[in-house]
Automatic annotation (TrEMBL):
It comes from Methylobacterium isbiliense. Its main location: membrane. It is a multi-pass membrane protein. Pfam families: LPG_synthase_TM. This is TIGR00374 family protein. The keyword Cell membrane applies.
Amino acid sequence: MRQTLSDRPPPSLGRALLRRVPLFGALAGIALAAWLVAVNDVGAVAAAFGRVGVLGLAAVVLVRVGIILLCGIAWAQVTAGAAVGTGPFLLLRFVREGVNVLLPVASVGGDVLGGRLLTFWGVSGAVAAAGIIVDMFFQVAALALFSLAGVLLLGQLEGEPAAQLAAWCAKGLGVSALVLAGFFAVQRFGGAGALERRIAALGRRFVREASPTESARPGVQAALDAMWERRRWWPLSQGALLHVAAWFLGALEIWIALRCMGFEVTVTEAIVLESLSQAIKSAAFPVPSGLGVQEGGFVLLGGVFGIDADAALALSLVKRVPDVVLGLPSLIAWQMIEGRRHLLAPGRSGP
């Protein structure tokens, strides 16, 4: 007998609160952003943002396009069993990014959606789920390496504030290394833990979007094993290196923006600012798009390099311009993909 919505038991209090974590995070982020604006000179922030100019903003947007394309290619490289070409991965990578930066979801919401949409191209649910898991692992691992480079460069600077910040960040990277090791172990060796059950649930969720013959195809753990085969070391290495390159390319956004504002920032300083601000933003993943956290991170880090709070807030605004310019079209593309899937669904007879 089919269960109806009215027959289903209500979600537990813990699960209900968990679902509202992005909402709570968004409210906290808005409050932090409002406080940062209130304690600083709004006019000075606007003036610093204005100095970037249209050409500077266009350059930052183009850099972001390059970053997303690199990440899309990396996703395609690591996803074994998805014989659909690179095109869908590039398109869906923009969708993943748009959802993560513009919608009130935790920072992995767009990634889960991207894996689900990949099944619309005939990719099995298990392969789509496993591909997202491996791609996210490489993305986070590359961020850890990028952040380590930032910490090492920061440690070379003179002054007590830089030394204290470097020590604090190094401790955070130690914790991240343990988390990454656990994430990798679950993928490679499986287990009966909660994370593996979540992975299996993710695969079943994608299966519902795939073809009727999906049940005969390998499960998520089998797909993960296939992706981690030794003979695939070269595609996996390419995926990892592309993610590393994408993170480093992000420092170019910082360099362009600060140069346009009149700061004589070096490439090394831009790498430190980008790497550590991204690490801070990643640590606050329940906050949608790192709202408020990104701004606070730039204010904190900018002080080490003599960048005043007004310019740091303007820098954060510049970094959010590509979020909107590229995010809005990607959300429209998502709806078009969903609409096309709905119209082509078998047995559809009405609007």
